[in-house]
Amino acid sequence: MTTPASGSSSRRSSSAGTPDSAVNQAVAAISEDIASGFYQPGDQLVEQECAQDYQVSRNTLREAFRILQRQQLLVHQPHKGVFLRSFDSEATAELYVYRRFVQLAAIDAFAYASEDKQQQCIDTMIAACDAAYNAQAEGDWRAVGTRNSEVHLALVDVAGIPKLSEDMRIIMVQSRLAFLSAAHRGDLAATHGPFIDGNRELANVLTAVQQAANTSEEARDAARRQARAFLHDYLDRAERTVIDLIEGGSSALGFLR
């Protein structure tokens, strides 16, 4: 049977998505539910139930499932059905290789973006961090995870390349599954909590890049390199934290300090 995360009452209808086709609407709706933590790694998505919940035909849903499998969010087990993917240490390490490649390049794009684009990125990051702190205070760790993801999406969006932003959104949904795999259906505080302060510091580091860009080319380049170093270290520590949890260790909640 389909097993949603605890505390969830209903799924999003595919009509809430914005893509033109019914298939893409279903893909968007299911992806959003995965990204929000509605499902857990290993949950089965039963075709009949999902067709009703997302208000699509079963043929449409099957095609949506195939796309989500290509995006490495779902896995099909012969004679059993479709399940949410679980991430092991190797898959998580591969995920962070991609994230380092894309997000460090996004730092460079940010450094040379217009001041308006830079400010929009920083404002989005700060708003997401503020929302994460509020969710943390309420003990809503699923919301914390969602807001944490928004910080990194904002950075990549500054490049202004729609295909890159689309791919990064898929990667961040995969990241959510990796984090949920690390949480073992339990301590979301250990997987999401340590990142809020780090995300806020990332916004501060990018603000320094923006300010330096108004000073001189040399100052901008120095600030850009400092931002890359910070983010590289952040992602390295994040990877180690998640893999440690997946392998049964304990995370260091102050890992960014």
What is shown here, in short?
With 257 residues, this protein is mostly helical. Helix 1 packs across helix 7, helix 4 runs antiparallel to helix 7 and helix 5 (115-137) runs antiparallel to helix 6 (141-157). Helices cover 67% and strands 4% of the residues.
How would you explain this protein's 3D organization?
With 257 residues, this protein is mainly α. It has 2 domains: 19-84, Winged helix-like DNA-binding domain superfamily/Winged helix DNA-binding domain (Arc Repressor Mutant, subunit A, Orthogonal Bundle); 89-248, Four Helix Bundle (Hemerythrin (Met), subunit A). It is built from 10 helices and 3 strands, in the order αβααββααααααα. The chain has a 3-stranded antiparallel sheet with strand order 1-3-2. The protein is globular, with a radius of gyration of 19 Å.
